[in-house]
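Lecture 7, part B: from sequences to assemblies.

Below are the input chains for today's worked example.
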Amino acid sequence: MTLNDIISGLGVTVLLPIILFVLGLFFRIDVKRLFRSAVLIGVGFIGINLILGYFLNNLAPAAQKMVEFTGVNLPILDVGWPAAAAIAFAGKIGLFVIPITVLVNFLMYVLHLTDTIDVDVWNYWHFAFTGGLVYALTDNLWLGMLASAINAAIVLVLGDWTAPAVQQYYGIPGISLPHGFSAAYVPIAIPINWLLDKLHLDKIQADPESIKKRWGIFGDPVIIGLVLGLVVGLLGNLKTLNDAKSWFNILQLGMSMAAVMYIFPKMVSILMDGLIPISEGVREFMKSRAKGRKFYIGLDSAIAVGTPAAIASSMILVPIAIVLMVLIPQNRMLLAVDLAVLPFMVVMTVPITKGNILKTVIIGTIIIAVGLLIGTNLSPLFTKAAIQAQFKMPSNATQISSICDGSNPLTWLIVKLINSWYGVVILFAILVLFLYFYRTHRQTWEKIAGATEVTEENK
Amino acid sequence: MRRVKILVVCGTGIATSTVVSRKLEEKLSKEGFEVETRQCKASEVSANLEGVDIIVSTTPISGNVKVPIVRTLAFLTGVGEEDAIQEIIQKLGGDKS
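Predicted structure of the full complex, as structure tokens:
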């Protein structure tokens, strides 16, 4: 029996808890609490696997019928960020992502290349996701880990860059948002926002509260799921609507999708709960070594997502995303679970547009349109990564993807470049140039990202 | 032991609100409170106010809410946790009976 046999034999639900338990010991976490949390992590995975399986088994045949009978060619199922995160943590890269990220963060901090101490261990999954896709592409574990490390490094600098902006706009002093998904859109949002300002679109104000009242239904994932299920069911049964059985099928699919949208995140919550002690261990470990120098505490962008402009914009973007999904000819992705993740897509754009909903929605539309193409393009690797992480697909034909991070432009960039030596050189060049120009012109850069005041740190 | 029902709010209703719920249960029980928490998203606050004594949130909450709100990141950063707990106790009326 080889090590590989043991690893695949045990499976992620046993292996990851063991590995995270050992990691937790390294961070000197109380053993009893750590043990229970490790078990919870395994439980979370089992829960996620259950719902993912349910989702795929119900939606895949329905989507198939829809493609056959209406020619609406969207066979790639959006399994959403809950599945993407689970696949990321369950993959071989996921086993190493926490030590890799802590190491990268620590080194960069000590070398004054970042001021952020990223204690948001849950969101390290974004880096493992990129690494997992690279591993699926190249079968090279080291390359996968390198991809994770580069992803983490870039995101840490993005976090620093946007820190004054988010601190001021969201009133969160001392915090940065090194979020693998939310931060990736900042470099794209900035030029588009500049263009929109030139077109004087910043003069058009919309009231978030009235938008939330009128479009509120698009902010409720359960209803989104219900409607989506009903529509896909309807389209798949278009030829047999005189048969009562078709209607039973349609209504059941609506409920199935509503259930997935509601229950899926709750399963993820179990996993997150399990990660809490390790997260705190990482936090205290890094803080104690920060040696009195100032630092930003890197947190989940979820702390800002409640802001009215983000919520209102993402509500409007849901129907826009659905229309784009159907209209864009090269898109093959059937948006589903990740229709609920749109607030995270715009949350770091909002300080740049200064809360202007029209501009945020336009930027969001462009991001989603491009994202659909990226998601379609990365789907084969995503599906392969899922299979490698031992998630069962209902059939060989099933293709999956997501918005977060399957449509993440930074992930796409790293995956496309890393597989050649000149690509790796380009990636490092991007990181180095980004670091250099940012850190030598901090005030200017930070204002471009939405900062309105000069902070103590960068006077 | 005074029983309190806390609505813990974050952007997703599951991410940071899970962390905060655990901390509240742990720390407030040491202060003599019996804590029941419910988690929800910022956009769902008005639908979840039944019987809630106080709201603890990591993300902005807009709209008119009659229940006291404490917005803090202390339980995520590890900085100022005790102050946050005191503020919560104070807004609960400080009464432990």
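Note for the exam: Chain A has 18 helices and six strands. Keep this in mind when comparing with the next example.
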